[in-house]
UniProtKB/TrEMBL annotation:
Matches recorded under InterPro entries: AMP-bd_C, AMP-bd_C_sf, AMP-binding_CS, AMP-dep_synth/lig_dom, ANL_N_sf
Name of the protein described by the UniProt record: Medium-chain-fatty-acid--CoA ligase
Alphabetized UniProt keyword annotations: Fatty acid metabolism, Ligase, Lipid metabolism
Origin: domain of life: Bacteria
Entry-linked Pfam families: AMP-binding (PF00501), AMP-binding_C (PF13193)
Domain called AMP-binding enzyme C-terminal: residue spans: 458-532
Organism taxonomic ancestry: Bacteria, Pseudomonadati, Pseudomonadota, Betaproteobacteria, Burkholderiales
A biological-process GO annotation: fatty acid metabolic process
Gene Ontology terms, MF aspect: ligase activity
Domain AMP-dependent synthetase/ligase: 34-409
Length: 550
Protein backbone atom coordinates (compact mmCIF):
# COMPACT_ATOMS: atom_id res chain seq x y z
CA UNK A 1 0.00 0.00 0.00
CA UNK A 2 2.15 2.81 -1.23
CA UNK A 3 1.20 6.23 0.16
CA UNK A 4 4.48 7.72 -1.01
CA UNK A 5 5.05 10.49 -3.59
CA UNK A 6 6.14 9.54 -7.10
CA UNK A 7 9.45 10.72 -8.55
CA UNK A 8 9.30 12.55 -11.88
CA UNK A 9 11.52 9.75 -13.17
CA UNK A 10 10.22 6.29 -12.37
CA UNK A 11 12.30 3.13 -12.84
CA UNK A 12 11.65 1.13 -15.98
CA UNK A 13 11.74 -2.40 -14.72
CA UNK A 14 8.94 -4.95 -15.00
CA UNK A 15 6.31 -4.55 -12.36
CA UNK A 16 5.51 -8.05 -11.22
CA UNK A 17 3.45 -8.54 -8.09
CA UNK A 18 5.12 -10.63 -5.38
CA UNK A 19 2.57 -13.43 -5.16
CA UNK A 20 2.71 -16.69 -3.20
CA UNK A 21 1.71 -18.65 -6.34
CA UNK A 22 5.01 -17.61 -7.93
CA UNK A 23 6.85 -19.71 -5.34
CA UNK A 24 5.22 -23.02 -6.17
CA UNK A 25 5.44 -22.25 -9.90
CA UNK A 26 9.16 -21.64 -9.48
CA UNK A 27 9.66 -24.80 -7.40
CA UNK A 28 7.82 -26.89 -9.99
CA UNK A 29 9.65 -25.42 -12.99
CA UNK A 30 13.16 -25.48 -11.56
CA UNK A 31 13.08 -28.11 -8.79
CA UNK A 32 10.19 -30.23 -10.02
CA UNK A 33 11.84 -33.53 -9.18
CA UNK A 34 12.90 -32.56 -5.64
CA UNK A 35 11.07 -34.28 -2.86
CA UNK A 36 8.50 -33.50 -0.20
CA UNK A 37 8.33 -36.32 2.36
CA UNK A 38 5.54 -36.45 4.94
CA UNK A 39 4.77 -38.57 7.96
CA UNK A 40 1.01 -38.86 7.57
CA UNK A 41 -1.62 -38.99 10.28
CA UNK A 42 -2.37 -42.41 8.74
CA UNK A 43 1.06 -43.41 10.14
CA UNK A 44 2.97 -44.12 6.92
CA UNK A 45 5.53 -42.03 5.04
CA UNK A 46 4.34 -40.31 1.89
CA UNK A 47 6.74 -39.08 -0.79
CA UNK A 48 6.18 -36.97 -3.83
CA UNK A 49 7.75 -34.02 -5.67
CA UNK A 50 7.34 -30.27 -5.98
CA UNK A 51 5.72 -30.91 -9.39
CA UNK A 52 3.18 -33.23 -7.78
CA UNK A 53 2.51 -30.63 -5.10
CA UNK A 54 1.94 -27.94 -7.69
CA UNK A 55 -0.38 -30.14 -9.76
CA UNK A 56 -2.50 -31.04 -6.74
CA UNK A 57 -2.54 -27.41 -5.53
CA UNK A 58 -3.97 -26.44 -8.95
CA UNK A 59 -6.62 -29.13 -8.59
CA UNK A 60 -7.50 -27.84 -5.13
CA UNK A 61 -7.69 -24.27 -6.45
CA UNK A 62 -10.19 -25.48 -9.06
CA UNK A 63 -12.15 -27.39 -6.44
CA UNK A 64 -12.34 -24.37 -4.12
CA UNK A 65 -13.46 -22.20 -7.04
CA UNK A 66 -16.21 -24.73 -7.83
CA UNK A 67 -17.31 -24.59 -4.19
CA UNK A 68 -17.70 -20.84 -4.61
CA UNK A 69 -14.74 -19.64 -2.53
CA UNK A 70 -14.01 -16.12 -3.75
CA UNK A 71 -11.08 -13.72 -3.52
CA UNK A 72 -10.44 -12.52 0.01
CA UNK A 73 -12.64 -15.22 1.56
CA UNK A 74 -11.16 -17.25 4.38
CA UNK A 75 -10.51 -20.99 4.28
CA UNK A 76 -9.43 -22.55 7.55
CA UNK A 77 -7.21 -25.52 8.30
CA UNK A 78 -6.80 -27.72 11.37
CA UNK A 79 -3.90 -29.89 10.34
CA UNK A 80 -0.43 -31.14 11.17
CA UNK A 81 2.61 -30.52 9.02
CA UNK A 82 2.13 -32.50 5.82
CA UNK A 83 1.85 -32.38 2.05
CA UNK A 84 -1.91 -31.83 1.93
CA UNK A 85 -1.58 -28.89 4.28
CA UNK A 86 1.15 -27.52 1.99
CA UNK A 87 -1.18 -27.90 -1.01
CA UNK A 88 -3.76 -25.83 0.86
CA UNK A 89 -1.12 -23.16 1.59
CA UNK A 90 -0.63 -22.64 -2.15
CA UNK A 91 -4.12 -23.36 -3.48
CA UNK A 92 -5.96 -21.10 -1.05
CA UNK A 93 -3.61 -18.10 -1.12
CA UNK A 94 -2.60 -18.59 -4.74
CA UNK A 95 -6.21 -18.40 -5.90
CA UNK A 96 -6.70 -15.13 -4.02
CA UNK A 97 -8.52 -16.54 -0.98
CA UNK A 98 -7.03 -16.31 2.53
CA UNK A 99 -5.56 -19.28 4.38
CA UNK A 100 -6.49 -19.31 8.05
CA UNK A 101 -4.42 -21.86 9.98
CA UNK A 102 -5.97 -22.76 13.34
CA UNK A 103 -4.14 -24.31 16.27
CA UNK A 104 -5.82 -27.65 17.11
CA UNK A 105 -4.51 -27.51 20.66
CA UNK A 106 -6.98 -24.73 21.47
CA UNK A 107 -10.32 -25.39 23.14
CA UNK A 108 -13.29 -25.92 20.78
CA UNK A 109 -14.97 -22.72 22.07
CA UNK A 110 -11.87 -20.68 21.28
CA UNK A 111 -11.54 -22.30 17.84
CA UNK A 112 -15.20 -21.44 17.16
CA UNK A 113 -14.60 -17.87 18.33
CA UNK A 114 -11.66 -17.54 15.94
CA UNK A 115 -13.49 -19.21 13.02
CA UNK A 116 -16.49 -16.94 13.53
CA UNK A 117 -14.33 -13.85 13.82
CA UNK A 118 -12.46 -14.81 10.66
CA UNK A 119 -15.76 -15.73 8.93
CA UNK A 120 -14.22 -18.93 7.62
CA UNK A 121 -16.12 -20.45 4.68
CA UNK A 122 -14.63 -23.93 4.65
CA UNK A 123 -12.57 -25.91 7.11
CA UNK A 124 -9.96 -28.45 5.94
CA UNK A 125 -8.97 -30.89 8.69
CA UNK A 126 -6.79 -33.90 9.37
CA UNK A 127 -9.04 -36.85 10.06
CA UNK A 128 -7.52 -37.26 13.56
CA UNK A 129 -9.21 -33.98 14.49
CA UNK A 130 -12.73 -35.21 13.67
CA UNK A 131 -13.95 -35.16 17.31
CA UNK A 132 -12.59 -31.63 17.71
CA UNK A 133 -14.25 -30.46 14.48
CA UNK A 134 -17.52 -32.06 15.55
CA UNK A 135 -17.33 -30.08 18.79
CA UNK A 136 -16.62 -26.86 16.93
CA UNK A 137 -19.24 -27.26 14.17
CA UNK A 138 -22.38 -26.48 16.22
CA UNK A 139 -20.77 -23.20 17.33
CA UNK A 140 -19.41 -22.18 13.92
CA UNK A 141 -21.63 -19.62 12.22
CA UNK A 142 -20.07 -19.16 8.78
CA UNK A 143 -18.53 -22.51 7.79
CA UNK A 144 -20.39 -23.90 4.79
CA UNK A 145 -18.56 -27.19 4.56
CA UNK A 146 -15.91 -29.40 6.09
CA UNK A 147 -13.21 -31.07 4.00
CA UNK A 148 -11.55 -34.14 5.52
CA UNK A 149 -7.92 -34.44 4.41
CA UNK A 150 -8.02 -38.16 3.63
CA UNK A 151 -8.84 -40.89 1.12
CA UNK A 152 -12.51 -41.85 0.56
CA UNK A 153 -12.13 -45.15 2.43
CA UNK A 154 -11.09 -43.29 5.62
CA UNK A 155 -14.14 -41.02 5.59
CA UNK A 156 -16.13 -41.36 8.82
CA UNK A 157 -19.28 -43.33 7.94
CA UNK A 158 -21.69 -41.65 10.34
CA UNK A 159 -20.37 -38.19 11.12
CA UNK A 160 -22.86 -35.50 12.03
CA UNK A 161 -20.80 -32.81 10.31
CA UNK A 162 -22.88 -30.79 7.87
CA UNK A 163 -21.68 -30.86 4.27
CA UNK A 164 -18.72 -33.14 4.90
CA UNK A 165 -16.50 -33.57 1.84
CA UNK A 166 -13.55 -35.85 1.10
CA UNK A 167 -10.35 -34.06 0.06
CA UNK A 168 -9.01 -36.83 -2.16
CA UNK A 169 -12.38 -37.32 -3.87
CA UNK A 170 -12.60 -33.56 -4.48
CA UNK A 171 -9.13 -33.53 -6.03
CA UNK A 172 -9.79 -36.57 -8.14
CA UNK A 173 -12.75 -34.89 -9.78
CA UNK A 174 -11.03 -31.53 -10.30
CA UNK A 175 -8.99 -30.70 -13.40
CA UNK A 176 -5.35 -29.67 -12.96
CA UNK A 177 -5.38 -26.94 -15.60
CA UNK A 178 -5.49 -23.78 -13.57
CA UNK A 179 -3.77 -20.45 -14.21
CA UNK A 180 -2.82 -18.66 -11.04
CA UNK A 181 -4.49 -15.25 -11.14
CA UNK A 182 -2.43 -12.05 -10.98
CA UNK A 183 -3.57 -9.42 -8.51
CA UNK A 184 -2.25 -6.70 -6.20
CA UNK A 185 0.60 -8.04 -4.07
CA UNK A 186 -0.83 -6.25 -1.05
CA UNK A 187 -3.89 -8.52 -1.12
CA UNK A 188 -4.43 -10.59 2.00
CA UNK A 189 -2.90 -14.07 1.79
CA UNK A 190 -3.17 -15.67 5.21
CA UNK A 191 -4.42 -15.09 8.69
CA UNK A 192 -2.97 -16.19 12.04
CA UNK A 193 -4.41 -15.44 15.44
CA UNK A 194 -2.24 -14.62 18.44
CA UNK A 195 -2.61 -17.11 21.26
CA UNK A 196 -4.68 -14.74 23.35
CA UNK A 197 -3.07 -15.42 26.69
CA UNK A 198 -4.54 -12.06 27.71
CA UNK A 199 -7.96 -11.29 26.24
CA UNK A 200 -9.38 -12.66 22.99
CA UNK A 201 -7.01 -13.69 20.21
CA UNK A 202 -6.39 -11.09 17.52
CA UNK A 203 -5.74 -11.78 13.85
CA UNK A 204 -2.54 -10.88 12.02
CA UNK A 205 -3.48 -10.66 8.34
CA UNK A 206 -0.44 -11.17 6.12
CA UNK A 207 -0.21 -10.07 2.50
CA UNK A 208 1.37 -11.79 -0.49
CA UNK A 209 4.04 -9.10 -0.54
CA UNK A 210 4.86 -9.41 3.16
CA UNK A 211 5.01 -13.19 2.89
CA UNK A 212 7.30 -13.27 -0.15
CA UNK A 213 9.65 -10.66 1.33
CA UNK A 214 9.75 -12.50 4.65
CA UNK A 215 10.52 -15.76 2.82
CA UNK A 216 13.41 -14.22 0.89
CA UNK A 217 14.84 -12.75 4.07
CA UNK A 218 14.49 -15.97 6.03
CA UNK A 219 16.63 -18.07 3.68
CA UNK A 220 19.63 -15.69 3.89
CA UNK A 221 22.89 -17.11 5.33
CA UNK A 222 22.65 -15.32 8.67
CA UNK A 223 18.98 -16.14 9.07
CA UNK A 224 18.05 -19.76 8.35
CA UNK A 225 20.72 -20.33 5.71
CA UNK A 226 18.76 -22.70 3.46
CA UNK A 227 20.14 -23.91 0.14
CA UNK A 228 19.23 -26.41 -2.55
CA UNK A 229 21.50 -28.95 -0.85
CA UNK A 230 19.46 -28.99 2.36
CA UNK A 231 16.70 -31.19 3.69
CA UNK A 232 14.51 -29.10 5.98
CA UNK A 233 12.21 -30.48 8.66
CA UNK A 234 9.94 -27.90 10.27
CA UNK A 235 9.14 -29.20 13.75
CA UNK A 236 7.34 -25.91 14.35
CA UNK A 237 3.75 -26.57 13.30
CA UNK A 238 2.19 -25.09 10.19
CA UNK A 239 -0.49 -23.65 12.51
CA UNK A 240 2.14 -21.71 14.51
CA UNK A 241 2.79 -18.58 12.42
CA UNK A 242 2.92 -20.66 9.22
CA UNK A 243 5.73 -22.85 10.55
CA UNK A 244 7.77 -19.63 10.72
CA UNK A 245 7.35 -19.26 6.96
CA UNK A 246 9.21 -22.46 6.03
CA UNK A 247 6.52 -23.83 3.65
CA UNK A 248 7.13 -20.68 1.56
CA UNK A 249 10.87 -20.29 2.07
CA UNK A 250 11.99 -23.87 1.40
CA UNK A 251 10.48 -24.23 -2.12
CA UNK A 252 12.25 -21.03 -3.18
CA UNK A 253 15.56 -22.85 -2.65
CA UNK A 254 14.54 -26.27 -3.95
CA UNK A 255 15.62 -27.92 -0.70
CA UNK A 256 13.97 -31.20 0.21
CA UNK A 257 11.03 -30.73 2.55
CA UNK A 258 10.37 -33.21 5.35
CA UNK A 259 7.12 -32.98 7.31
CA UNK A 260 6.85 -34.80 10.67
CA UNK A 261 3.02 -34.94 10.85
CA UNK A 262 1.73 -35.59 14.35
CA UNK A 263 4.73 -37.68 15.46
CA UNK A 264 6.71 -35.12 17.46
CA UNK A 265 8.10 -37.37 20.20
CA UNK A 266 11.89 -37.71 20.46
CA UNK A 267 12.07 -41.18 18.90
CA UNK A 268 9.92 -40.39 15.85
CA UNK A 269 11.65 -37.09 15.16
CA UNK A 270 15.09 -38.68 15.53
CA UNK A 271 14.23 -41.53 13.17
CA UNK A 272 12.86 -39.18 10.55
CA UNK A 273 15.96 -36.96 10.82
CA UNK A 274 18.17 -39.96 10.16
CA UNK A 275 16.09 -41.67 7.51
CA UNK A 276 15.61 -38.52 5.44
CA UNK A 277 19.07 -37.10 6.17
CA UNK A 278 17.65 -33.84 7.49
CA UNK A 279 20.15 -30.96 7.64
CA UNK A 280 18.07 -28.05 9.01
CA UNK A 281 15.21 -27.84 11.46
CA UNK A 282 13.33 -25.23 13.49
CA UNK A 283 11.19 -25.25 16.60
CA UNK A 284 10.50 -23.93 20.09
CA UNK A 285 12.86 -25.03 22.92
CA UNK A 286 10.42 -27.50 24.50
CA UNK A 287 10.39 -29.79 21.43
CA UNK A 288 14.16 -30.19 21.57
CA UNK A 289 13.95 -31.36 25.18
CA UNK A 290 12.15 -34.55 24.13
CA UNK A 291 14.57 -35.20 21.28
CA UNK A 292 17.69 -34.57 23.40
CA UNK A 293 16.40 -36.77 26.24
CA UNK A 294 15.73 -39.61 23.83
CA UNK A 295 19.18 -39.29 22.27
CA UNK A 296 20.89 -39.12 25.65
CA UNK A 297 19.06 -42.19 26.94
CA UNK A 298 19.93 -44.18 23.83
CA UNK A 299 23.40 -42.71 23.26
CA UNK A 300 22.62 -41.63 19.72
CA UNK A 301 24.28 -39.14 17.37
CA UNK A 302 23.06 -37.32 14.28
CA UNK A 303 24.58 -38.22 10.93
CA UNK A 304 23.33 -35.28 8.82
CA UNK A 305 21.71 -32.64 11.06
CA UNK A 306 23.80 -29.45 11.03
CA UNK A 307 21.67 -26.46 12.02
CA UNK A 308 18.57 -25.66 14.00
CA UNK A 309 16.72 -22.42 14.45
CA UNK A 310 15.32 -22.09 17.97
CA UNK A 311 12.92 -19.37 19.00
CA UNK A 312 9.41 -18.71 20.22
CA UNK A 313 10.79 -18.48 23.76
CA UNK A 314 14.30 -18.05 25.06
CA UNK A 315 16.55 -21.00 24.26
CA UNK A 316 18.27 -22.10 27.50
CA UNK A 317 22.06 -21.88 27.07
CA UNK A 318 22.41 -25.43 28.41
CA UNK A 319 20.33 -26.68 25.48
CA UNK A 320 22.40 -24.68 23.01
CA UNK A 321 25.58 -26.13 24.46
CA UNK A 322 24.30 -29.70 24.36
CA UNK A 323 23.29 -29.34 20.73
CA UNK A 324 26.49 -27.60 19.76
CA UNK A 325 29.11 -29.53 21.70
CA UNK A 326 27.59 -32.97 22.20
CA UNK A 327 25.81 -33.29 18.86
CA UNK A 328 27.69 -30.87 16.58
CA UNK A 329 24.54 -28.94 15.65
CA UNK A 330 24.76 -25.19 15.12
CA UNK A 331 22.01 -23.36 17.02
CA UNK A 332 20.69 -20.11 15.58
CA UNK A 333 18.72 -18.31 18.25
CA UNK A 334 15.90 -16.34 16.64
CA UNK A 335 13.20 -14.04 17.90
CA UNK A 336 9.91 -12.99 16.43
CA UNK A 337 6.18 -12.97 16.90
CA UNK A 338 2.90 -13.68 15.11
CA UNK A 339 2.64 -9.95 14.42
CA UNK A 340 6.01 -10.13 12.58
CA UNK A 341 5.35 -13.08 10.23
CA UNK A 342 7.26 -14.08 12.56
CA UNK A 343 11.00 -13.45 12.07
CA UNK A 344 12.61 -10.31 13.49
CA UNK A 345 16.13 -11.25 14.58
CA UNK A 346 18.56 -14.14 14.37
CA UNK A 347 21.89 -14.57 16.09
CA UNK A 348 25.06 -15.30 14.10
CA UNK A 349 28.63 -14.07 14.58
CA UNK A 350 30.36 -11.48 12.39
CA UNK A 351 34.02 -11.57 11.36
CA UNK A 352 34.99 -9.26 14.21
CA UNK A 353 33.65 -11.82 16.72
CA UNK A 354 35.68 -14.74 15.42
CA UNK A 355 38.78 -13.71 17.37
CA UNK A 356 36.88 -13.50 20.67
CA UNK A 357 37.46 -16.22 23.28
CA UNK A 358 35.01 -19.12 22.94
CA UNK A 359 33.09 -18.18 26.13
CA UNK A 360 32.43 -14.68 24.82
CA UNK A 361 31.24 -16.04 21.51
CA UNK A 362 28.86 -18.33 23.36
CA UNK A 363 27.51 -15.44 25.42
CA UNK A 364 26.88 -13.47 22.23
CA UNK A 365 25.14 -16.40 20.59
CA UNK A 366 22.77 -16.64 23.56
CA UNK A 367 21.28 -13.29 22.56
CA UNK A 368 18.26 -13.14 20.24
CA UNK A 369 20.51 -11.41 17.74
CA UNK A 370 20.59 -9.01 14.89
CA UNK A 371 17.64 -7.69 12.91
CA UNK A 372 17.11 -9.31 9.55
CA UNK A 373 17.35 -6.70 6.81
CA UNK A 374 13.89 -5.23 6.37
CA UNK A 375 13.16 -5.02 10.09
CA UNK A 376 14.24 -2.05 12.21
CA UNK A 377 14.14 -1.96 16.00
CA UNK A 378 14.71 0.30 18.98
CA UNK A 379 14.28 0.25 22.75
CA UNK A 380 12.41 3.05 24.51
CA UNK A 381 11.48 4.02 28.06
CA UNK A 382 7.88 4.31 29.23
CA UNK A 383 7.73 7.89 27.92
CA UNK A 384 8.76 6.68 24.44
CA UNK A 385 12.31 8.11 24.60
CA UNK A 386 14.89 6.03 22.78
CA UNK A 387 17.41 4.28 25.06
CA UNK A 388 21.11 3.68 24.39
CA UNK A 389 22.54 0.60 22.70
CA UNK A 390 24.98 -0.38 25.44
CA UNK A 391 23.92 -3.98 26.03
CA UNK A 392 22.82 -3.08 29.57
CA UNK A 393 20.05 -0.53 29.46
CA UNK A 394 16.76 -2.31 28.96
CA UNK A 395 13.52 -0.92 27.63
CA UNK A 396 10.39 -1.64 25.63
CA UNK A 397 11.24 -3.15 22.27
CA UNK A 398 9.63 -1.52 19.21
CA UNK A 399 9.91 -2.73 15.61
CA UNK A 400 8.87 -1.82 12.10
CA UNK A 401 9.24 -3.34 8.68
CA UNK A 402 7.37 -4.62 5.62
CA UNK A 403 6.36 -7.87 7.33
CA UNK A 404 5.38 -6.26 10.66
CA UNK A 405 1.68 -5.75 11.48
CA UNK A 406 0.06 -2.38 10.81
CA UNK A 407 -3.39 -3.09 12.28
CA UNK A 408 -5.07 -6.27 13.53
CA UNK A 409 -7.73 -7.97 11.42
CA UNK A 410 -11.02 -6.03 11.54
CA UNK A 411 -9.15 -3.31 13.38
CA UNK A 412 -9.44 -5.18 16.65
CA UNK A 413 -7.69 -3.18 19.36
CA UNK A 414 -7.70 -0.01 17.22
CA UNK A 415 -4.46 1.67 16.25
CA UNK A 416 -1.57 -0.35 17.54
CA UNK A 417 1.41 1.62 16.27
CA UNK A 418 3.33 4.26 18.26
CA UNK A 419 4.66 6.82 15.78
CA UNK A 420 4.85 4.13 13.12
CA UNK A 421 6.46 1.53 15.39
CA UNK A 422 4.90 -1.67 16.73
CA UNK A 423 5.32 -2.22 20.48
CA UNK A 424 6.24 -5.87 20.91
CA UNK A 425 5.47 -6.17 24.62
CA UNK A 426 9.00 -7.47 25.12
CA UNK A 427 11.69 -5.85 27.24
CA UNK A 428 15.17 -5.98 25.76
CA UNK A 429 18.72 -4.63 25.62
CA UNK A 430 20.59 -3.81 22.40
CA UNK A 431 24.41 -3.75 22.35
CA UNK A 432 26.73 -1.50 20.38
CA UNK A 433 26.86 -4.01 17.52
CA UNK A 434 23.07 -4.08 17.33
CA UNK A 435 22.58 -7.48 19.02
CA UNK A 436 19.30 -7.58 20.89
CA UNK A 437 18.66 -9.63 24.00
CA UNK A 438 15.22 -10.23 25.44
CA UNK A 439 15.16 -9.61 29.18
CA UNK A 440 11.56 -10.66 29.53
CA UNK A 441 8.04 -10.19 28.33
CA UNK A 442 6.93 -7.00 30.03
CA UNK A 443 4.23 -8.88 31.93
CA UNK A 444 6.70 -11.52 33.15
CA UNK A 445 9.47 -9.33 34.59
CA UNK A 446 9.76 -9.58 38.35
CA UNK A 447 9.56 -6.18 39.97
CA UNK A 448 11.53 -6.23 43.22
CA UNK A 449 12.00 -3.04 45.22
CA UNK A 450 11.50 -0.84 42.16
CA UNK A 451 14.10 -2.78 40.15
CA UNK A 452 13.54 -5.46 37.55
CA UNK A 453 14.70 -9.04 37.68
CA UNK A 454 14.80 -11.00 34.44
CA UNK A 455 12.91 -14.28 34.83
CA UNK A 456 14.58 -15.58 31.65
CA UNK A 457 18.07 -15.07 33.11
CA UNK A 458 17.21 -17.02 36.25
CA UNK A 459 15.60 -19.84 34.23
CA UNK A 460 18.62 -20.02 31.93
CA UNK A 461 20.97 -20.42 34.87
CA UNK A 462 19.07 -23.16 36.65
CA UNK A 463 18.42 -25.09 33.39
CA UNK A 464 22.17 -25.74 33.34
CA UNK A 465 21.87 -27.80 36.55
CA UNK A 466 22.19 -31.50 35.68
CA UNK A 467 19.08 -32.48 37.67
CA UNK A 468 16.78 -29.84 36.13
CA UNK A 469 14.53 -30.75 33.23
CA UNK A 470 12.55 -27.52 33.04
CA UNK A 471 12.17 -24.39 35.13
CA UNK A 472 10.02 -21.30 35.30
CA UNK A 473 10.50 -18.24 37.41
CA UNK A 474 7.62 -16.04 38.52
CA UNK A 475 7.17 -13.05 40.79
CA UNK A 476 5.38 -13.75 44.09
CA UNK A 477 3.86 -11.00 46.21
CA UNK A 478 6.19 -9.76 48.91
CA UNK A 479 5.13 -7.24 51.57
CA UNK A 480 8.40 -5.33 51.50
CA UNK A 481 9.79 -5.78 47.99
CA UNK A 482 6.53 -5.93 46.06
CA UNK A 483 7.58 -9.12 44.27
CA UNK A 484 10.28 -11.73 44.79
CA UNK A 485 11.29 -14.59 42.47
CA UNK A 486 9.95 -18.10 43.01
CA UNK A 487 11.47 -20.86 40.95
CA UNK A 488 9.19 -23.70 39.85
CA UNK A 489 11.20 -26.73 38.76
CA UNK A 490 10.62 -30.08 37.07
CA UNK A 491 13.37 -32.54 37.97
CA UNK A 492 14.89 -34.86 35.38
CA UNK A 493 13.49 -38.39 35.74
CA UNK A 494 15.36 -40.30 38.44
CA UNK A 495 17.36 -37.27 39.64
CA UNK A 496 17.33 -35.79 43.12
CA UNK A 497 17.95 -32.17 44.02
CA UNK A 498 16.51 -29.97 46.74
CA UNK A 499 15.64 -26.34 47.09
CA UNK A 500 18.76 -25.34 49.06
CA UNK A 501 21.05 -26.95 46.48
CA UNK A 502 19.38 -25.07 43.63
CA UNK A 503 19.53 -21.75 45.47
CA UNK A 504 23.22 -22.35 46.10
CA UNK A 505 23.65 -22.98 42.37
CA UNK A 506 23.01 -19.27 41.76
CA UNK A 507 25.99 -18.19 43.89
CA UNK A 508 28.42 -16.10 41.89
CA UNK A 509 26.19 -16.24 38.81
CA UNK A 510 23.83 -13.32 39.59
CA UNK A 511 23.66 -10.34 41.91
CA UNK A 512 22.66 -11.60 45.37
CA UNK A 513 19.31 -9.82 45.36
CA UNK A 514 18.35 -11.61 42.12
CA UNK A 515 18.63 -15.05 43.77
CA UNK A 516 15.21 -16.73 43.98
CA UNK A 517 13.70 -16.67 47.47
CA UNK A 518 12.42 -20.21 47.14
CA UNK A 519 12.23 -23.24 44.86
CA UNK A 520 9.24 -25.51 44.54
CA UNK A 521 9.03 -28.77 42.60
CA UNK A 522 6.25 -29.91 40.27
CA UNK A 523 5.74 -32.86 37.90
CA UNK A 524 5.02 -30.68 34.89
CA UNK A 525 4.76 -27.03 33.91
CA UNK A 526 1.71 -25.65 32.07
CA UNK A 527 2.47 -25.26 28.36
CA UNK A 528 0.37 -23.27 25.90
CA UNK A 529 -0.88 -24.33 22.50
CA UNK A 530 2.45 -23.54 20.85
CA UNK A 531 4.60 -25.29 23.45
CA UNK A 532 5.47 -22.18 25.45
CA UNK A 533 5.35 -21.83 29.21
CA UNK A 534 2.08 -20.34 30.40
CA UNK A 535 3.33 -18.04 33.12
CA UNK A 536 -0.07 -16.48 33.72
CA UNK A 537 -1.39 -19.97 34.61
CA UNK A 538 1.58 -20.54 36.86
CA UNK A 539 1.07 -17.20 38.60
CA UNK A 540 -2.56 -18.17 39.14
CA UNK A 541 -1.52 -21.57 40.52
CA UNK A 542 0.93 -20.02 42.98
CA UNK A 543 -0.93 -16.84 43.87
CA UNK A 544 -1.40 -17.93 47.50
CA UNK A 545 2.21 -19.08 47.81
CA UNK A 546 3.95 -17.72 50.87
CA UNK A 547 7.68 -17.15 50.54
CA UNK A 548 9.91 -18.13 53.48
CA UNK A 549 10.87 -15.23 55.66
CA UNK A 550 14.61 -14.75 55.82
P1 LIG B 1 2.23 -15.80 21.55
O1 LIG B 1 1.82 -14.43 21.93
O2 LIG B 1 1.21 -16.72 21.18
O3 LIG B 1 3.29 -16.43 22.40
P2 LIG B 1 4.06 -15.55 19.43
O4 LIG B 1 4.34 -16.95 19.05
O5 LIG B 1 3.89 -14.54 18.42
O6 LIG B 1 2.78 -15.56 20.15
O7 LIG B 1 5.08 -15.12 20.55
C1 LIG B 1 5.85 -13.97 20.46
C2 LIG B 1 6.61 -13.78 21.73
O8 LIG B 1 7.40 -14.91 22.04
C3 LIG B 1 7.59 -12.65 21.67
O9 LIG B 1 6.96 -11.42 21.86
C4 LIG B 1 8.55 -13.01 22.80
O10 LIG B 1 8.04 -12.63 24.06
C5 LIG B 1 8.57 -14.50 22.74
N1 LIG B 1 9.75 -14.96 22.02
C6 LIG B 1 9.85 -15.35 20.75
N2 LIG B 1 11.10 -15.74 20.45
C7 LIG B 1 11.83 -15.59 21.58
C8 LIG B 1 13.21 -15.81 21.93
N3 LIG B 1 14.10 -16.31 21.08
N4 LIG B 1 13.58 -15.50 23.19
C9 LIG B 1 12.71 -15.01 24.09
N5 LIG B 1 11.42 -14.80 23.82
C10 LIG B 1 10.98 -15.08 22.59
Amino acid sequence: MSHYPKSPLMGQMMSQPLLISSIIQHADRYFGRNEIVSRRVEGDLHRYTYSDCHRRARKLANALGALGVGMGERVATLAWNGYRHMEAYYAVSGSGAVLHTINPRLHPELIAYIANHAEDQYLLFDICFLPLVEAVAPLAKTIKGYIALCDPELMPPDSKLPNLLCYEALLEHSPDDYSWPLFDENSASSLCYTSGTTGNPKGALYSHRSTVLHSLASIMPDTMNISGRDAVLPVVPMFHVNAWGLPYAVPITGAKMVFPGPALDGKSVYELFEQEQVTISAGVPTVWLGLLNYMEQNQLKFSSFKRTIIGGSACPPAMMQALRHRYGVEVVHAWGMTEMSPLGTSCCLQTRHLSLPAEQQELLLQKQGHVIYGVDMKIVDDAGEELPWDGETYGNLLVKGPWVIDTYFKNEGGVVLQDGWFATGDVATIDADGYMQITDRSKDVIKSGGEWISSIDLENIVMAHPAVQMAACIGIFHPKWDERPLLVVVRKPGMEVDSAQLIKFFEGKVAKWWTPDDVTFVDALPLGATGKLLKNKLREQFKEYVLPTA
